[in-house]
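Project standup — Tuesday

K.O.: blocked on the structure for the chain from last sprint. Re-posting the sequence here as requested.
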Amino acid sequence: MTASNENLYALFENRFPADRSWPFIEIPGGRTWSYGDLETESGRIANRLRSLGVSPGDRVAVQVEKSPEALFLYLACLRIGAIYLPLNTAYKAGEIGYFLGDAEPRVFVCDPAHAAEAQGLAQKAGVAHVETLGGDGKGSLTEGAVGESADCETAQAATDDIAAILYTSGTTGRSKGAMLSHGNLASNALVLHESWGFEPSDVLLHALPIYHTHGLFVATNTVLLNGSAMIFLARFDPNQVIELLPRATVFMGVPTLYVRLLEQTGFGAETCRSMRLFVAGSAPLLPQTFEEFKARTGHTVLERYGMTEAGMITSNPLRGERVAGKVGPPLPGVEARVAGEDGTVLGAGEVGILEIKGPNVFKGYWRMPEKTAEEFRPDGFFVTGDMAVIDEAGYVAIVGRSKDLVISGGFNVYPKEVELAIDALPGVLESAVIGLPHKDFGEGVTAVVVGEAGAAPDETGIIAAIKDELAIFKVPKRVFFVDELPRNAMGKVQKNALRERYAGTYDSPTRES
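H.V.: unblocked you, prediction finished:
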């Protein structure tokens, strides 16, 4: 008897509409791709990858602009059992070089505009092939796929086989590759599909990046599992979203997007007349944004909580009370508890480190067994590093981060990585990087620097230098200078004191790109 195929694509395929002419992706003012097109295009790309020597378990690194073809590439990797490795389009050469060296992909797919630089990085890292794919769907990958057959048998995969690796910044400055299995992604998609009440008639307005858990695994995977359609925007534009919302039923966004929508005078209940569900995540949704959105539109945003290593973990209910400032109870099948630093489980109302367990929790960090072991308790619970409290009703509130993680615009920024870049600049003695409340971004990355007298660069100089080294979302929005950093008796920098000192920095923020 043949074992069932646990490949995530096989699960999607079983849920595709019987009529493959049903729309999958619509580009506003442009083309619509059907589910039949999805099968054809992903099949051709899958066979193109095979022709380049990609076998099950091989990594395919991808840093491209958002496009339907980029999604077909993701699905092609699933179909042949390759491991999909999406990279933020903001990453710079130094960061890309590290990822290629660490993951050792068989193929690196990049934007055509960066092909020359990518070739150099790939050669240094020993990557066999560089292919290109632009935001317009054109490039050597799709050109090479034209002559390939669309027929592609889905590779056999077990639940624990790795489907994707997503890199998350490390507290020591070294990024970690979170290994997500077919079973991890399938379990999360199935639970979200059920918990958020997806219906065949749903249309998702997709305005998120697809190199990130939120836009790829939460938004796209639930649509694929639902066999329904989505309106696909290259990027978020509030006016375009307002224009298209009457044709949609579901919208997912980071808090920044909701703030932007509320800034538009034409946004209100009439705009949202066809909407069934608004979901927010990737950063804390401020209570005032929650209340203002409800007052303006009549819709209560459903806030949820997740992370790269586990997909979605908790969610406010579809039917039931959605509480401002809380991310709801754990999703079905997920266990959550709060514990002290020593692992002692704490009771309701007590603040501690959130620990989780479930089929959604990743298989570990790529080639980092020791680091993986450090992050799990002996009974299998994963230590998230987020400080939380669980109330008597089981609702979770995230109150801080034990590892000083900053979440800016929905993206994780680990201070140590930014501090290392700043400390390497001439004239800088040391630095401390913190997150401060910011209306648009949730938190603004902020640096406090101790410089050599008369030799340190100014704020503009530091920001300019860091922009050449790190992705733009990691770059400090402000830099402050002090004679010395506050420290405790053990010599540890007291970042809480710095957060208190500069707390009002972004009370009237200017718009950063």
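K.O.: great, moving the ticket to review. The CA atoms of residues 495 and 501 lie 10 Å apart. The radius of gyration is 23 Å.
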